[in-house]
Design brief:
single chain; eight-stranded mixed beta sheet; 35 strands
C-alpha cells in the first residue's frame, strides 16, 4: 500500500501559549541560545520553540495565558523576582534562564502543594502514562511531600459519571482552570466555573449541577484541556491509554475537523481533535469527539447478501457471488428495458475517490448519465445560484475568515447544532465585537451568545426568503450603501443596471414586503443599514436557504447582496454555504450530477467531454441523465428498473416517503452499499457491506473547499473499502478498473479536473490540507476565492423575483412545518443513533408555540398527529417559544418519526431540491401512531427478521 504519511507527525507538542501575529521580530537568548520570535510572543512559547520545556500546569497553547500554577517561573537578567514565563512577553535583548537551583526549589515547593491535595494512586489511575501532573512532578524532581495528606482536602469528593462519554472526578482536580477556560475561550458555552476561594476552590458545572444536567454540550474541550484524570474519557478508563495514533478527518458535518484516532492494536480508544487541523484548530463537537462507536456496532453489515425478492430472506454469499449477481441483474435489465433503465446514486458520506468511481461507473459501465447525489436534496441550489452569479459552485472563504468579519448575516442555518465547531469560532468573533443578524423562522442559540451584543433577529415566515433578501438589497441601493467602486470594477454593467432598476421598485421596499415576510419594516432597514455600512460583512447560510421552491433564486439574491456591497474577494466577507454532510462539496465536485462531469464540466460541451472520453475509452452521452426525482418517477412509471446506491438512504432522507417507497418497490434490482440495514436497504436485492471512514484511505472536501486526507485506522470489517467494491462491480460489468490505491484515483481526478490539477496525496500530506482551486495558477490552493476576478470574468447580477410557494397554509392546513437538525444527531441518524448520543435525543419531537398548542388543547409531551397534503404522522409535542405562532418544527433523525411522510414533492424550480422547509400542516392531539408508522414498524420487523435469519448461499 502506498504510504505518504509519517506517523511521527501525529505527535503534538504543546507550546504553552497561543501564537502571536506580528510583523515585528524580537531577538533574545534563552539559556544561552539565541532565538527570534514575533513581538508579543511569551517567554514560554519562545523557549519551547528552542526545545526548552519550561514546567507548566495551567498553560496550554490553545488558551490565553493565565499565570496561576506558578510552575513556569524563570529568571530574567535585570529583573527582580521570578516572573511567570507564560504571561511574560519577550523583549529585544532579553536574557532568560529557565533552570537554576533557586527555580528548581521554588517549583518543587509549588508541586508539593499540588500533590498534598491529590490522591497518590498513579499505578491504578486512568491517566497513568499520560498525566501532566505526574510528568511535572518528575520534571521538577519532587521526591517528598512535607505537608502530609491529612489536612482539609478534596480527596473524598465523589465522581460525577452522569455524562455518557466522560467522568469528572473532583478528588483529582488541581483547580488549574484549564477546563473552565477551554469551555469559555474555545467552545464559548461558559458551562464551567470555579466555586469557592483559595483551598476551597472547586470546578463546577453550571450551578453545581451534574455535567449531564448542565449547559455542557459535551464537545470534549474540557476533557482535552485537563492535565490530570479529573476529566477523562470513559473509553480510556475502560480500555487504558492508547499507544499510537493516526490523523484522519471526521465523517460527520461539512466542517471537516481533523482528528487523531488514538489506537491500541486495532481498537480505537478515542478521537482527539488535531491541533494542526486547518478547519478546527484542535476543537471538536460531541459527534466527532465521541460518537465513533457506530463504526464497530453489532448492527454493521459485514457480509454481502443477495435475494431474488424483497419479501424473501437474505442469503449470505462471498463477494464474488454478490458482485456477479448484481452485474447479471443490471445487464439483464438493460437488455430488456434499454441502456437508460438503470442508474446510480453517489454518497456525500463517502470519499472523493469513491464518489468519482461511482459516477465513472455509471458513465462507462452503465453507458448513461443517470448519476445523482444526495446533494440534490440539500445544496444543489447553491451550485446553480453561485455558478450563475459568481461563476463557481462553492463558498468563497475559509472558516478562519469569520474572525475578520464586522457584521455576520446568518440565513436559514443553525450553526451551533449543525456545524458546532465553526459556531464556536463564530461566537468567538461575536464576543470580540462583531454584530450578528439572523434571518430564521426560529430563535436559534446563536442569538444567545454569552458576552456578546444581542443579535438582530428577523423572524421571517417560512418560504419568504427571496422577499426578505430583496428588501435588504432595496434598502442598500435606495439609501446609497452600495460599493460603487467594487461594482464598476468587478461586475457586469448591463446586468447591474437591470438589477438596480428591478430592486429599486417600491414593491421590494420593506414596508411592502412586511405583509409577506412578517418581519417589521424597521427591523429590515436596521439590518440592511448594519450590513451595508460594515467594513467587512459576511453571509453564512444553510438548508433554510436552499431547501425551498426558490432555493436557487435565494442563492442568487445572496450573491447579489454581496456584490452590491463589495463583500467578496478578501477576508471577513463572502458568501458561505454551510454544507450539511462531510463530503457534500466533494460529491458535487466529483461529477455526481447527471449534467456535469467532475469539476462542474457540462456533458453537452464537446471540448469538456472529450478528455474524459479519451481517458476512459468510451463515448459519453451529450444529454443529461436522470435526477433522483426523475429516477423515482420513472421507476413508478415502469421505465427505470435498476439502481446502485452507495451510502445514501433516500427512503428516509427524500421527501414524500410513500412515493419513494413505491418507486423502490418497483425496481427489479436495487443494489445498496452501506454500513447498516437502512430504510433504503429494506427494498434491496443486493446488500453490499460499506466501510466507515475509519476503514479507508482517501479525501473529503469540506464546506470551505478544503481537501482533507482520510487515513485508514482499522482494517475494513468486511474486507473491502467502498472504492474496491465499485471497482469490482465495474469489472464484472465488463468495464475494466485497475486502481491499487485511492491516491491513483486522485491522480486521475487531477488530470481531468482543472480545479484539482495540482492536487495529490503527497501534497495534501505535506501541506496538511488544500483548498481548491489548486492548479498551475494556485499551486498550493486558494483560501479566498474571487480576489482579483470571477471565473466568469465579471460578476453577474440576477433578477430575483419573489414567487410565493405553492405550499400555502389555509383553514385546513393552518400551520407551516419546517425541519432541521439537533446537535447530538446527524442526518438520518444511522450513525449517531448507534452511539450514546441517543441519550440526548431518543425521539424526534414537534416544537409548537404555546398559543398554537393552547388552541388545540395540546400539552407538553402529548402525542400529536401532523397532517399535510402528502400524508400524516405522529410525534410527541414540545411546547416552545423558539418557534413563532403559526410555525411548527421537527427533526428527522429517527426513521419511525416519518418526518418526510408529510413533506411534499414541491421543489426548487432550477434543481429539484425539495422544499423541506415549508409544509402546510394541521396538528391535533391523538393517542396512537399513524397508519404509516404502524406499517413501517411491521415492515421493519419483517425485514430485520429476513436479515437475522439470513441463510448461507444455496449450493449450485
Amino acid at each position: 500500500m502506498l504510504q505518504y504519511y509519517d506517523p511521527a507527525q501525529a505527535a503534538e507538542i504543546d507550546l504553552g501559549t497561543p501564537p502571536v501575529a506580528s510583523e515585528t521580530e524580537v531577538q533574545l537568548t534563552i539559556d544561552g541560545v539565541a532565538v527570534t520570535v514575533p513581538a508579543g510572543t511569551s517567554v514560554m512559547r519562545a523557549a519551547a520553540l528552542t526545545g526548552h520545556r519550561i514546567p507548566k500546569l495551567c498553560a496550554s497553547d490553545n488558551l490565553e495565558a493565565f499565570g496561576s500554577c506558578r510552575l513556569c517561573l524563570v529568571a530574567i537578567e535585570g529583573r527582580r523576582g521570578y516572573p511567570a514565563a507564560c504571561t511574560t512577553p519577550v523583549e529585544d535583548g532579553m536574557k532568560v534562564q529557565t533552570q537554576t537551583q533557586e527555580l528548581a526549589r521554588l517549583r518543587r515547593n509549588v508541586m508539593e502543594l499540588y500533590i498534598s491535595d491529590h490522591p497518590l494512586d498513579c499505578l491504578t489511575c486512568s491517566a497513568n502514562g499520560n498525566c501532566e501532573l505526574q510528568d511535572m512532578a518528575g520534571a521538577v524532581g519532587l521526591r517528598e511531600v512535607r505537608y502530609g495528606y491529612d489536612g482539609d482536602n478534596h480527596l473524598d469528593a465523589q465522581p460525577d459519571t452522569s455524562n455518557p462519554y466522560f467522568s469528572f472526578d473532583p478528588g483529582k482536580c488541581i483547580v488549574c482552570s484549564r477546563c473552565v477556560r477551554a469551555c469559555e475561550e474555545v467552545q464559548g458555552t461558559f458551562a464551567l466555573t470555579i466555586q469557592g476561594r483559595g483551598f476551597d476552590s472547586t470546578v463546577a458545572a453550571s450551578q453545581d449541577d451534574p455535567f449531564v444536567d448542565s449547559e455542557c454540550v459535551s464537545c470534549g474541550a474540557c476533557v482535552q484541556a485537563c492535565p490530570t484524570a479529573t476529566l477523562m474519557e470513559n473509553s480510556v478508563i475502560e480500555m487504558g491509554q492508547p499507544d499510537r495514533s493516526v490523523v484522519t478527518t471526521c465523517a460527520y458535518c461539512g466542517v471537516g475537523c481533523s482528528f487523531r484516532a488514538e489506537m491500541k492494536g486495532n481498537e480505537l480508544v478515542r478521537m482527539v481533535p488535531h491541533k494542526d487541523g486547518h478547519a478546527n484548530h484542535g476543537h471538536s463537537c460531541v459527534k466527532g469527539r465521541f460518537a465513533f462507536g457506530y463504526a464497530t456496532h453489532p448492527d454493521r453489515i459485514t457480509t454481502p447478501m443477495i435475494r431474488d425478492s424483497i419479501h424473501e430472506p437474505w442469503r449470505r454469499v462471498e463477494w464474488d457471488e454478490a458482485i456477479g449477481f448484481a452485474a447479471r441483474r443490471l445487464r439483464d435489465i438493460q437488455s430488456r428495458h434499454g441502456r437508460d433503465s438503470i442508474g446510480g446514486i453517489t454518497s456525500s458520506r463517502c470519499t472523493n475517490e469513491e464518489t468519482y468511481l461511482v459516477q465513472k461507473l455509471v458513465r462507462t459501465a452503465f453507458g448513461n448519465n443517470n448519476t445523482d447525489t444526495c446533494a440534490r436534496v440539500c445544496h444543489s441550489p447553491t451550485g446553480y445560484g453561485l455558478k450563475m452569479t459568481l461563476g463557481e459552485s462553492a463558498g468563497t472563504q475559509t472558516f478562519d475568515s469569520v474572525m475578520h468579519a464586522d457584521v455576520i448575516l446568518v440565513i436559514g442555518a443553525n450553526p451551533t447544532d449543525a456545524h458546532p465547531v465553526f459556531a464556536s469560532q463564530l461566537r468567538r468573533r461575536l464576543r470580540q465585537g462583531a454584530r450578528l443578524i439572523v434571518a430564521d423562522p426560529r430563535s436559534i442559540d446563536l442569538l444567545r451568545t454569552v458576552h456578546a451584543d444581542e443579535g438582530l433577529h428577523l423572524p421571517l415566515r417560512p418560504g419568504t426568503n427571496v422577499a426578505l433578501i430583496n428588501a435588504l438589497a432595496h434598502v442598500v441601493v435606495t439609501e446609497g450603501l452600495e460599493d460603487q467602486d467594487f461594482i464598476s470594477r468587478r461586475c457586469e454593467p448591463d446586468t447591474y443596471a437591470a438589477w438596480r432598476t428591478f430592486i429599486t421598485d417600491p414593491r421590494h421596499a420593506p414596508e411592502a414586503t412586511e405583509a409577506v415576510t412578517g418581519v417589521p419594516a424597521e427591523q429590515v432597514r436596521e439590518a440592511a443599514r448594519l450590513f451595508g455600512k460594515a467594513r467587512n460583512a459576511a453571509i453564512y447560510y444553510g438548508l433554510g436557504v436552499s431547501e425551498h421552491s426558490q432555493g436557487s433564486t435565494m442563492v442568487m439574491g445572496i450573491a447579489n447582496l454581496a456584490m452590491a456591497t463589495g463583500n467578496l474577494g478578501r477576508e471577513g466577507v463572502g458568501v458561505n454555504p454551510l454544507r450539511g454532510q462531510n463530503n457534500v462539496q466533494g460529491s458535487c465536485d466529483m461529477g455526481s450530477f447527471p449534467h456535469e462531469l467532475p469539476g462542474y464540466q457540462h456533458v453537452a460541451v464537446d471540448e469538456l467531454r472529450k478528455p474524459f472520453e479519451q481517458a476512459w475509452g468510451v463515448t459519453i452521452g451529450r444529454e443529461a441523465g436522470l435526477r433522483i426525482p426523475n429516477m423515482l418517477d420513472a421507476a413508478v412509471d415502469g421505465s427505470f428498473k435498476g439502481l446502485y446506491v452507495q451510502g445514501e438512504d433516500i427512503a428516509q432522507s427524500d421527501p414524500n416517503t410513500r412515493h419513494v417507497e413505491q418507486a423502490l418497490e418497483s425496481l427489479e434490482c436495487l443494489i445498496v452499499q452501506d454500513l447498516f440495514l437502512n430504510e433504503t436497504a429494506k427494498f434491496a436485492h443486493v446488500l453490499l457491506p460499506g466501510s466507515s471512514f475509519l476503514e479507508k484511505d482517501g479525501t473529503f472536501t469540506n464546506a470551505e473547499r478544503r481537501i482533507n486526507r482520510v487515513r485508514q485506522v482499522i482494517p475494513p470489517l468486511a474486507g473491502k473499502a467502498d472504492w474496491e467494491v465499485t471497482q469490482d462491480l465495474s469489472n464484472a460489468l465488463g468495464y475494466p478498473m485497475n486502481y491499487s490505491h485511492p491516491s491513483e484515483i486522485m491522480d486521475e481526478i487531477a488530470r481531468l479536473t482543472p480545479t484539482f490539477r495540482s492536487v495529490s496525496f503527497e501534497k495534501i500530506d505535506r501541506l496538511g490540507s488544500i483548498q481548491w482551486p489548486c492548479n498551475e495558477a494556485f499551486p498550493e490552493g486558494t483560501p479566498i476565492m474571487h480576489v482579483a476576478e470571477f471565473p466568469i470574468g465579471l460578476g453577474r447580477f440576477m433578477q430575483t423575483e419573489y414567487v410565493p410557494t405553492d405550499e400555502k397554509s389555509n383553514s385546513r392546513y393552518p400551520l407551516l412545518l419546517t425541519t432541521g437538525r439537533i446537535l447530538s444527531q446527524y442526518n438520518v441518524g444511522a450513525q449517531t443513533r448507534r452511539t450514546r448520543n441517543s441519550f440526548w435525543h431518543q425521539e424526534d419531537v414537534l416544537d409548537i408555540h404555546p398559543q398554537d398548542a393552547e388552541d388545540r388543547g395540546i400539552a407538553d409531551g402529548d402525542w400529536t398527529g401532523i397532517t399535510s397534503r402528502a400524508g400524516n404522522t405522529v410525534l410527541r409535542a414540545r411546547i416552545s417559544t423558539r418557534v413563532q405562532p403559526g410555525v411548527v418544527y421537527t427533526t428527522f433523525h429517527h426513521p419511525v418519526s416519518g418526518a418526510n411522510v408529510i413533506t411534499t414533492d414541491n421543489s426548487d424550480w432550477a434543481t429539484n431540491c425539495p422544499e423541506y422547509k415549508v409544509t402546510a400542516v394541521q396538528v391535533e392531539k391523538v393517542h396512537q401512531p399513524s397508519n404509516w408508522q404502524k406499517r413501517h414498524q411491521a415492515d421493519d420487523r419483517e425485514q430485520r427478521g429476513y436479515l437475522t435469519g439470513a441463510t448461507p448461499a444455496r449450493e449450485s
